[in-house]
Design a protein that fits this description.
This protein is mainly beta. The chain folds into 2 domains: 72 residues, Carboxypeptidase-like, regulatory domain (Immunoglobulin-like); 729 residues, TonB-dependent receptor, beta-barrel domain (Maltoporin, Chain A), CATH 2.40.170. The protein has 10 helices and 41 strands. β24 and β25 form a beta hairpin.
Length: 849
């Protein structure tokens, strides 16, 4: 009995000891010994954390026997230290090393983020995803980065399933996307409808789950001379997680306040997300494997019950598509020796979607009443498979750092139709079809060399490299009934989206060879000079040579001036060169058969439209950065971007046109349009970012004011061949308005993030400026400025478990309402500004071990 009592007493004592907490304390300083205010101090593997005060000091309670602390702050290198006793940490300026992904915009491995001569935004995805309701990368950046814009679209065919995005108001294809510093392939989709990205291809950011991302670096500066095609507006570099021995998982759910519905349903658009991330360390030389699995499913929203104009109801089904998205991504590094390691990263994404097409009412001559007595609402389905894989080696070659890699990517998009018919088949028509699709693939072999000469003045970094890229594009036909007309007196093809025809099908490829050299010279400790030169040759249009020069000068300890000037280019995508289709468009609510003729088609050749060539650009950026201690920072950057020979989708030419009309009649289409280097544009803008950290009571308040002001003008429209002198017909006011509306003239973001112990709250205001579009009759459609409000509350239930809940667009703001007969979408608004779904409620549970 005594032995049993002794065992019980010892058990209670040990449990008590385990449950007892210890208080950890310390101070965080920068390299000069100054306190770092607002640095984040987190117990590794938990949600238990705090922030440093105005003296850089912190206290934290822990129940672990041997806690490890992870200390981080923007602009500094993250450190991990033992948590026993009183901790004193000096954070070095953030810089890169051989084993880390370099900061975008510089190939110097000694360059810090705040030391860059170009403006770079660093977005910590852990902080963003913890405290916001947005779940995919596009929407996260839309409300965090003012120079970034992306809206979901509806009634826009493929763009309903792949959100187009832009930087500084330029096209989706004028921003280069990198993953771990390597070029990410584009989507195979060409955007044809909607208010954003018309005629552009772009990169689908949403194939990469946010749970797999450590940070996103946005270089807001022309960088074609450094990275090649597409970097006219800037570069987005997605850095994948490399953490080890840490399991993170989250479950999220949210839904919209259903204001514009015909039924009594209070909520719709339910959005569910679940993900898990885990990293395994391999040995003691930094080897690791980090993997992420993510599942996201969102339901339809319904916004068709809005006031209609004299033309009557345009659509019975109008809202966001239903999308199911499954992703798996991995990031890994394997040490071969002290100076050599192999890296492998990439992943796969499978997406299926259902999107509403325009209503065919009961008395429509495209309806078969015996199949649909009340008319029908076609559903356009998507089946998208995206894969990427990168493998490479980094090593030392004498005094040089060498990086050799191969990068393969593929995006395949297939269309389907259901709840539809082919009217020319009458009552015998099927109600679902396979409509064909397209695929884009790329393979990139790259070699890079970097060397730092520490004894040349205050340091010289030299980089050189070469790249070979091959791209493939294919467009494949749908089943016969999806495109064929079996009765010339009736409409043929699947309603909602006619399938691609055998005559549309094509297979194309091209090769590209590039070589670059760049250098960064620290003339003094205060003054940096940098230059880059890049040559590229494409097999389908020729060669281009581009350069970039930049400088940065530390005027005082607290003020740095910087500036860049560069030339750039963007090669027309294989999809823009080779895409060909006949589709149904709606003009003032009436269906019109439109031929989109490929660049080298019989129609374009008859009109004298030349082969597509590269866009060229000249851009300049002048600004300053100011950092007063670690509590206040300010960056201001003004920019100028001129783009010549911009590839656009022209206006639609009618069969009644005196020049092109007879050709269209012979092709049995009502209208035609095509891609051409038709416009010169000029953008002038300003980016401002102000960050402040302060202690408020016993908590920490982070305040951020970020703004982008952008003015895009079309300087010139150029026509050629038989259409010479017809600028307003070739690329008219309506199409010009769509280009200008790629971003509102200004977007301002004001965020307050307060943390007190286990509790935190985030309050964010985003002001979207007015947007001007033009309707089918040439009348202005002015969307007024709007302010949205987001509010999130978070509480750490335990050291490992955190619950967050809140609302985005708290006050249920919508864009200006219009007659659906006037809009591009057939709904009450075009896809502008902050989206058109209203208030969103969400809750998320996150675990970290």
């Amino acid at each position: 009995m005594k032995q049993q009592l002794l065992v019980a007493a010892l058990s209670v004592a040990s449990l008590t000891a385990y449950g007892q907490s210890q208080t950890l304390s310390g101070q965080v300083l920068d390299a000069a010994g100054r306190p770092v205010i607002g640095a984040t101090v987190v117990e590794k593997g938990t949600n238990n954390g705090t922030a440093t005060d105005n003296a850089g000091r912190f206290t934290l309670s822990s129940r672990a026997a041997s806690p490890r602390l992870v200390i981080s702050s923007i602009g500094y290198t993250t450190q991990e230290v033992a948590g026993s006793g009183s901790v004193s940490v000096k954070l070095a300026d953030a810089s890169t090393s051989l084993g880390a992904v370099q900061v975008v915009g510089s190939r110097s491995q000694n360059r810090s983020v705040t030391d860059s001569p170009s403006p770079v935004d660093i977005i910590d995805l852990r902080e963003v995803t913890t405290k916001t309701g947005q779940l995919d990368v596009n929407q996260l950046l839309q409300f965090v980065a003012p120079s970034f814009n992306s809206n979901r679209q509806t009634g826009s065919d493929g763009a309903d399933h792949v959100d187009p995005a832009s930087l500084r108001g330029l096209g989706p294809d004028q921003t280069l996307v990198l993953v771990n510093g390597k070029r990410q392939h584009q989507s195979a989709l060409v955007n044809l409808f909607g208010s954003r990205g018309r005629g552009n291809t772009g990169t689908d950011l949403n194939v990469i789950p946010a749970a797999s991302i450590e940070r996103i670096e946005i270089l807001r500066d022309g960088a074609a001379a450094q990275y090649g095609s597409d970097a006219i507006a800037g570069v987005i570099n997605i850095v994948l997680k490399s953490s080890v021995n840490e399991l993170t998982t989250s479950v999220n759910y949210g839904a919209y306040d259903a204001k514009y519905r015909r039924d009594d349903q209070k909520f719709d658009g339910g959005n569910f997300n679940a993900n898990v991330n885990y990293g395994v360390g391999l040995g003691e030389q930094g080897s690791f494997v980090n993997a992420t699995v993510d599942f996201n499913q969102r339901q339809h929203t319904q916004r068709a019950n809005v006031p209609v104009g004299p033309g009557g109801l345009a659509r019975r089904e109008y809202g966001d598509p239903k999308v199911s998205n499954l992703s798996a991504y991995v990031n890994s590094k394997f040490a071969v020796s002290d100076q050599t390691h192999v890296y492998v990263f990439g992943g796969a994404n499978k997406r299926q979607g259902d999107a509403y097409a325009w209503t065919r009412f009961a008395d429509d001559d495209r309806n078969v009443p015996s199949i649909y007595p009340n008319g029908f609402d076609p559903i356009i389905t998507s089946d998208i498979v995206d894969v990427s894989a990168v493998a490479g080696v980094r090593t030392k070659l004498g005094e040089w750092d060498l990086d050799l890699s191969n990068n393969f990517g593929s995006n395949r998009f297939e269309y389907g139709l259901r709840n539809t018919l082919n009217a020319s088949l009458g009552a015998a028509s099927p109600t679902s079809f396979y409509a064909g699709g397209f695929q884009l693939q790329q393979d990139v072999v790259s070699l890079g060399l970097t060397r730092n000469y520490k004894t040349v003045l205050q340091g010289l970094n030299v980089a050189a490299g070469a790249e070979f890229r091959r791209e493939w594009y294919s467009l494949f036909a749908g089943e016969e009934a999806s495109y064929r007309n079996y009765d010339p007196t009736k409409s043929g093809g699947s309603q909602g989206f006619p399938g691609y025809q055998p005559g549309d099908a094509i297979k194309a490829q091209r090769d590209n060879v590039g070589a670059y050299v760049d250098a960064e010279l620290s003339v003094t400790q205060q003054w940096l000079l940098a230059a880059a030169l890049r040559y590229e040759h494409y097999t389908d249009f020729g060669s281009t040579l581009n350069y970039k020069v930049s400088t940065r000068y530390n005027l005082t300890e607290f003020l740095t001036l910087r500036g860049t000037y560069s030339t750039g280019f963007r090669a027309p995508s294989l999809a823009q060169i080779n895409f060909n289709s006949t589709f149904t468009n709606f003009i003032n609510g009436e269906p019109v058969e439109v031929l989109l003729a490929r660049n080298n088609s019989a129609v374009t050749q008859k009109l004298g439209v030349p082969a597509l060539k590269q866009e060229t650009s000249n851009s300049a950026n002048v600004g300053f950065t100011s950092r007063i201690g670690s509590s206040l920072s300010l960056t201001v950057d003004g920019y100028y971007i001129k783009v010549k020979d911009r590839v656009v989708l022209t206006s639609q030419f009618s069969a009644e046109d005196p020049v092109i009309g007879p050709d269209l009649v012979a092709l049995n289409v009502d209208q035609a349009q095509f891609f051409a280097n038709a416009a010169d544009t000029r953008s002038i803008g300003l980016d401002v970012v102000l960050n402040h950290t302060a202690t408020l009571g016993t908590g920490r308040l982070n305040s951020t004011l970020a703004a982008n002001i952008n003015n895009l003008k079309i300087d010139r429209v150029q026509t050629t061949g038989r259409l010479a002198g017809r600028e307003d017909d070739f690329f008219g006011p309506r199409e010009q308005a769509f280009v200008k509306a790629s971003a509102p003239p200004s977007k301002i973001n004001l965020t307050f993030d307060y943390q007190l112990g286990r509790f935190s709250t985030l309050l964010r205001f985003v002001r979207f400026d007015k947007v001007r579009l033009v309707d089918f009759d040439g009348a202005d459609m002015n969307y007024d400025a709007r302010v949205t409000t987001d509010l999130t509350f978070s509480y750490a239930l335990t050291d490992h478990l955190q619950l967050s809940a809140g609302s985005t667009n708290l006050f249920n703001r919508y864009p200006t309402l219009f007659d659906p007969q006037r809009t591009e979408t057939g709904g009450a608004w075009d896809p502008v500004q902050m989206g058109a779904n209203g208030r969103f409620y969400f809750a998320k549970l996150q675990a970290r071990f």
